[in-house]
Amino acid sequence: MPAIRRGSPPPFIPDDETPLEKLTRHWMNERHAPDILPAQEDLLGTLLDHLRRQSEVVQLLRGDPSTSEEEHIRIVLVQTEIERVKFIVRSYVRTRLFKIEKYARFITTNAEIQTRLTAAERDHASRHAKITDRHFHFSVLQSLPETQSHLDDTAIFMPPMITEPDNSIPVFVHALQNCPKITLPDGTSLEMEKGHISLTSYNVVQHLVARGEVELV
Amino acid sequence: MALPQSLRTSVTPPELELIASQQLIEIVPLISMERTAFISGAYGPLRPPNKAKIPLWMAVNLKLKKKCHIIAPEWLNIDYLQERLTRETTEPAFSDLPFRFAEISKVLLDVASDDLDNPDKLRSLLKDLREARQAKSREGLRELDHSELSLPNLCSMEINEIRPFFVQSMNVLSQIVRNPIPEPMMRP
């Protein structure tokens, strides 16, 4: 764990960041991080509510024959924005889904990663793991010798068969504020100033990503 | 498939454009519109000929309907870009440009080139800048080690461009550091 400077400033989230900007940041972080990041259930809920309200207004105005030409342009703009936001929401959820399916077997055995998922995501992971387990069992594993017939067997010459997130892969980080000192893989330390961009291994910056002090770009 | 293969390792330029299009830009509206609440905030009122600030995507939408003129951001003009290009070609560091300048300038040159001064010259300056900076990124590859590479002033689109190669190279370098090849195996 990289050393955190004593008296470092509290987690920094700019106050003027709108829910949409927050989701955009989380979306990009999720896309670039190898691991699954904490679920943003409340934020997603807020935006989905807002989307529903905006769609209702649009429906209402569309149905009203007295809607003027000028109103019409406003409706088109609101509708365009709805589609933009929906795209981001969808892509965000799909990115998580992709990682959940990829690491499903790992998720079922790791309690820490489960805390970062929503109840529905945990459910999906365990069902997915069960189905693939069954499939592997009936198609190959049942005909192997007992010592090799489980996915979590650790044969000496084999890479593990359960996919785990590889947190050592490099990511591009963009500092949103002055960051406390981090220790790099080669043992030197780096203190990122606001606006600094760096390519380094995910596991040395993951606590900064979690606190919102940096974003992945 | 939850995420298509092409989206797994990186984001795409259209996605970066989508993000950049949320930035505010000044326009001169040709229609009037009351202040309206959007998901990203409230914009307006539009009262020609008063200037207004709205997100880029909205400006593009109105521009395509010929309902506004877009005012170029302060960095999108020949003097500014020429000065940056001179610095780019004479100094070793990347000069500072807005983080999403590539996306925004592309959108503006595509839909609002008639609102810009001398768009052809702008295009060629942007192209020269891009090439000068690309050459520097390639130089930067020399500095790459397994641990960290600082890239001050690199822009969003440029990061995306070098991502696959840089990430993979760094990965290979760290594997070499982590599992050094034992001496005897290195002999031919």
Automatic annotation (TrEMBL), chain A:
InterPro entries: GINS_A (IPR021151), GINS_bundle-like_dom_sf (IPR036224), GINS_Sld5 (IPR008591), SLD5_C (IPR031633), Sld5_GINS_A (IPR038749). It holds the Pfam family SLD5_C. Keywords: DNA replication, Nucleus. It is found in: Nucleus. One of its GO terms (biological process) is double-strand break repair via break-induced replication. It comes from the Eukaryota. The keyword Chloroplast does not apply. SUPFAM superfamilies: GINS helical bundle-like, PriA/YqbF domain. One of its GO terms (cellular component) is GINS complex. Its main location: nucleus. Residues 56-132 form the GINS subunit domain. Residues 169-217 form the DNA replication complex GINS protein SLD5 C-terminal domain. The GINS complex plays an essential role in the initiation of DNA replication. Belongs to the GINS4/SLD5 family. This is DNA replication complex GINS protein SLD5.
From TrEMBL, chain B:
Keywords: Chromosome partition, DNA replication, Nucleus. Residues 12-71 form the DNA replication complex GINS protein PSF2 N-terminal domain. Component of the GINS complex. It comes from Crucibulum laeve. Its main location: nucleus. One of its GO terms (cellular component) is GINS complex. The lineage of its organism: Eukaryota, Fungi, Dikarya, Basidiomycota, Agaricomycotina. GO terms for biological process: chromosome segregation; DNA replication; double-strand break repair via break-induced replication. Transmembrane segments: none annotated. Residues 75-176 form the GINS subunit domain. This is DNA replication complex GINS protein PSF2. Belongs to the GINS2/PSF2 family.
